[in-house]
Design brief:
Elements: H1 2-141, E1 154-156, E2 161-162, H2 169-178, E3 181-183
Antiparallel strand pairs: 1-2, 1-3
Pathway: Protein modification; protein ubiquitination
Enzyme class: transferase
EC number: 2.3.2.27
Length: about 180
């Protein structure tokens, strides 16, 4: 029995040994995998370092031109702002000119209406002037031929007219009887 026990112990030891060998093989595989990973990470680190150096060189090359671009953008923005202000000022000026033009057009329309009214009045006034002239002529006709002052009181058929004070009373009576004169008074 001792032999059996020993055999069992040996068997258990062999099983344990196999188990430990398997575990050792696994650990070795894991160690190889980790070593590979470490080597890959090292390679990646080197590549990343090279890329980082290249990127830093490009960045240092780009920085001055980037600053120039920023300055240019600032100048362009200030020009845009001043252009907008100028554009707004021009729009205000255009609105003022449109308003002034509209006002001038309205004033012109008023002037045209006034001109039409004045022409109508002028036509009326020319008629009035003609009538005034005729009235003056008639007044001239009825003024005394001697004193040229007062309105005539007596008009003879021969188109002579005088104030009654200038005509002899005898002549008046004869003329009345003959029907040769007209009295305006």
């Amino acid at each position: 029995m001792e032999k059996q026990l020993m055999e069992q112990e040996i068997q258990q030891s062999n099983v344990s040994l196999n188990l430990y060998d398997t575990k050792a093989a696994r650990i070795e595989d894991q160690l190889r995998f980790c070593s590979d990973q470490i080597q890959k990470l090292g390679d990646n680190k080197n590549q990343s370092s090279v890329c980082l150096e290249n990127a830093q060189r490009r960045l240092s090359d780009i920085r001055p031109s980037s600053q120039q671009v920023r300055d240019t953008v600032g100048e362009v923005q200030s020009k845009i702002t001043s252009s907008r202000v100028t554009c707004m000022e021009l729009e205000v000026e255009l609105d003022k000119e449109r308003f002034d033009k509209k006002k001038v057009e309205e004033d012109l329309e008023v002037a045209k209406r006034n001109l039409s009214r004045l022409k109508a009045q002028d036509e009326d006034s020319s008629v009035t002037d003609k009538l005034q002239q005729e009235l003056g002529e008639y007044r001239e006709i009825v003024k005394c031929s001697i004193c040229r002052d007062r309105t005539k009181e007596v008009i003879f058929y021969c188109n002579l007219s005088y104030l009654i004070k200038f005509v002899k009373p005898q002549l008046v009576l004869e003329s009345i009887n003959d029907g040769m004169w007209l009295s305006l008074s």
